[in-house]
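Mods, move this if it's the wrong board.
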Amino acid sequence: MSEQGKVHLVTGGSRGIGRSIALALASAGDVVYFNHYDPDDSAADETIGLLEDAGVEAFGQKFDVTDAGQVQAWVKEAFEAQGRIDNLINNAGITMDGLLVRMSPEQFNQVIQVNLVGVFYCTQAAAKLMMKQRFGSIVSLASIAGQIGNPGQANYAASKAGVIALTKTAAKELATRGVRVNAVAPGFIETDMVNTIPEKLQEAMKAMIPMGRAGQPEDVADVVAFLCSDAARYVTGQVIAINGGMMM
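Not the wrong board. Structure tokens:
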């Protein structure tokens, strides 16, 4: 049983935005459980090292968030080991871009499974325990694509719009049990995923941002940390845009 510090669960926490969130959330004495689906454990091991350097106990595990059984086992393991779950961050996500008329059923379904169904599985598993303890915060990663759409990303945009609707519904259902549910909607953030986009297209997207630059993972992580803090104790059912003014 964790006598001090908070317990944080982060999906897709081995690198990028997920790693930044884990580092922003955790203070010395806290415990972080994160999952990943990388080909190997090198990034996860690096994240564990960074967290341990900050005085945080960290556990990384590889599993697929689209497997409900594995998700339930992960959440249950954390709760039974620590006696509580303070925060769940649904960050895991993928892209498989393509124009609508050329997109295969597999491309569409796989993105929906990871980005939306995976969020449902994790939220449901954590919510059952948070309702019993009568506290907790859940924050899911949506996207500007889920708010305004994006050519070539019918699957991704649909999955993130679904995350927004799921967030608002869960917030209404869980509020009386002391559980807050929010989402953040990042815009153009410099990550490994974004770096696969051709440079010319990246520059065109940056030109659409009033602040004149792409965001950094830390820009997202700091807002997530706020939503999980006591400073946001009266905030639930909200979608916070983090896009440098790209959408107003």
